[in-house]
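Quick question, first post here. What does this chain look like in 3D?
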Amino acid sequence: MTDSSSTGEFVQELGLVPQPVEVLPGATAPFRAQGRLDVYVSPALRQPMKWWSTTVEQVFDVDVWLHTANQTVGTGQTSAHVQVESVSDLPSEGYRLEVTENQILLQAGDERGVHGAVQTLRQLAGTNAYRQAPVGSATTLEIPALRITDYPRTAWRGVMLDVARHFMPKAGVMRFIEQAAAHKFNLVHLHLTDDQGWRVEIDQYPKLTEVSSWRKESIVGTWRDGELNGRPHGGFYTKDDLREIVAFAAQRGITVLPEIDIPGHVQSVVAAYPELGAATNPVEVRTTWGVSPHVLNPTDEAVAFFKNVFSEVLEVFPGPYIGLGGDEVPTVQWEERADIRQRAADLGLAKVSDLHGWFVAQIADHVVAQGRRPVVWDEAMSELLPKKAIVTSWRGYARGVWAAEAGHDAVMAPEQVLYLDHRASEDEEEPIPVGFSRTVTDVYAFDPLPGELAEQAAAAPGDLLGAQAQIWTEHLDNPRRVDYATYPRLAAFAEAAWSPVLDRSPGSAASADFMTRLRERHLPRLAAAGIEYRPLDGPLPWQKRPGVNGFPRDLEEEMAAGGLVGIGGWQEGSETA
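> Answer (accepted):
Ran it through. Tokens below.
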């Protein structure tokens, strides 16, 4: 086995993203198929091959025939064919491809390994493989002769899409999932609820879609300018919409993680059901960004309400992970009320702010009792949180290690690198520039455990599962804006999360190699797929937002103040999270 640097010019010419563990050139002519193509695959591995056959047939002059009765190709078979085999010597999601003139031999340790392999085959088939209909007369499927051995560095390779701040119609969500799968992500986290909107149908509480799913207008740019657009915004997914999204993702090897935020980020809920809130005055669905002061009143009634909500969510989302949010919870409203202070005392809590961890733990225990794993942001970690809960560390790196030391599995999602709604450069023409300037090479250099933290985490009882990028949509009000913020930086993160450990720092040989593959091979794939990515040399004229102010932050200043591994904490008016 060799590291990624040994793949050399051959890998650079192929332009595979993320880069496989090992790629070797073959000794035969390329594999070519036209007309009929037979695929031999066991029933357990059929789904990803069914997906691949659809992508092939819509672009190339090929009819794919799947043989799924545990058949193997005969030794006399000379026409081009594909053989898919299950093997035991590869890790989860690992695969091998051996492509010769007449055969593609695909070996995988599990179904997800086949999902990864077919995404590689699609890249190897050329740019037009990312279109939905033939272009020109070159309709022969052609794959270069080679041998690939590949498996992921991390088990959790996630990307979060915020559909609460700006609703994305179902077709856009599925398009987003399609592209996540193309980059070998295995989890899409849907942020379904927030102060600015509720996006999931709950039968028992219809006001959540009648009232909470829309707001009368939205702030434009930073909340500091106070400019509202006067345009209503809203939308929600029916349960069948979400079941369709889940099934669509599963066909591509992706798990969907739904998030219902508690006990903060609930102003939209309180607008519909004011009896749940800690405030005594009525509120409307929030029209601006930042952190709302409105939180839930931690009563038994509120706990019962959200147990009912999560029971319906669990029925729609069959995956192992259920997000509870738990981030950015102001305690001012709790502190102001004598009855809530007494509630904390009656529960035996040392201070009122401990109601935060108590409330999250009530719902987390409910989720665990249903056989699922709660997922929370790092602020929600407390002694009451069940150990099966997974902690997503967004406020730097250290909190992920602290979670692992407390016995929780952790996911690294530091805003300093992996908040892709943050501006992509220092260019003054970046549209609505918020957060830190994070370039493609900055994201490519991401390491889930930098420096001494790796040793510290290795000794902890909890595991580091992997990493996750976030796309918050306060300033991304349509799919074109999401494309611009997401790509090509998500491609860089995909390789950092998948490919072997090596020096990816800006200016390194690996970084230069990636940028060459990206520029010459991968950006054309994105363009063919209809992704309106940010050009490497800056935004196109129609991608700019002149006159709309953001709120840029200085990473070096904040590092000096708090240190990269410890920086963070919510602040009133925060632009994200």
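The chain is about 30% helix and 15% strand.
The chain has two domains: 22-150, 156-562.
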